[in-house]
Write the C-alpha cells for this entry.
Amino acid sequence: MPDVVFMLLFFFMVTTQMRDTSIMVQQRIPQATQLRSLQRKTLVKYLYIGEPRKIEEWGKEPKIQANDVFIQPREVIQWVNQEKSTLDESERDQITVALKVDNETKRGIIADVETELRKANARKLLYSTNLKSGEF
Amino acid sequence: MPRPTPDIPNASMADIAFLLLVFFLVTTTVANIKGLSVGLPPPPEAQEQQDIKIPERNLFKIQVNSFDNLLVEGEPWTGTNDELTEEIKRFILNNGADPESSDNPQEAIVSYKTDRGTSHRKFIEILDVIQKAYYDIYAERVGVTNEKWREIASDPEKYKDLYDRGRGKLPDGKLEIPMNLSIAEPTQVGQ
C-alpha cells in the first residue's frame, strides 16, 4: 500500500508545474470546437487580457497582463523581445503567443495587441479556448 | 556482540505520503495549451502598398458588428453556424461552377471583419466556423476525420505526407487549397 501511494506521489511531484504567475484579470475563456494543440510548450508565451479582478484598484477597462504586470499595448513589442531572449537563438522566430482573453472583452484592445505582435514579428498566434462540450 | 541497529518508526510513513500526495493533487494544474491557431500577416510597414483589385466573386465576406450581429456577403445571416460552414465550403470548392462564387480554391479568400466593439466570444465563435470549413475540406481529401486532421496539423513533421496531401502541396511549394483567411483590422463604430 505505501508503495502504491509513493508511486502516485512521485508521479504527481514530477508532473506538477507550479504556476509562477497569478492571473489578475477575469478569465472566462471562450469555447470552440476546432482546437489545435501545440507541441513545443516552451515556445508558448502567454498574454492575459480581460477586465481586472480588482475593479476598485484597477478600474473596469480591460487590461493586458504579461507575466506579473499590466502592460500597455505599445509595450508588447518590448515584452516579445524580452521573451524571445529567453529562448534558444535558433528558435526565436518560432515563438507562439497564446492569447488568453476573457469572453466579454471587446475586439478593439485585442486588435491593438495583434498589430503590435505583427510589428514585433511574433506572428504565430493562438487564441486560447476550451472545448465546446457536447460536440466531439 | 554487535549493537542492535536502531529502528526508525515507520508506521506514519503512509500517512505522510498520503498528505504529500493530496497536496500535489490539489496544486497540480494540467497545462492546457489548446486553442484556435492563426498566423498574423507581416508587419504593416513591411507590406508593400499594393492595390490589387480582388474580384468580388473570389471574396467571401463575413462581418460582425458591435452588437455581435452577423453579416454574410452583405446579407444578415439567419442560418445556423453549421450552415455557414457548409456555405464557406461551397464557396472554396466552387472552382468556377457558379459565376457568382470563387474561381478556384487558390484565389478564394475568406474575409473576416469585426468591429472594435465585437465581443471576443463572438469573434472566436465565427473564427471557429471558418476554420472548421477548411479543416473539413483537408480532412476529407485525405480521408480522415476532422479531429484526426487537427492532430495531423498540430504535428506536421510527424505526418508530413498526409499534411501535404490534405492541403495539396504543389511542386513549387504553393498549396492547392491554402487557408486564405484574412482577418481585417476592425472598424471603429462601437467602443
Summary: Chain A touches chain B through 52 residues (CB under 8 Å). The radius of gyration of chain A is 17 Å. The longest strand of chain A covers residues 44-50. The first helix of chain A runs from residue 2 to 15.
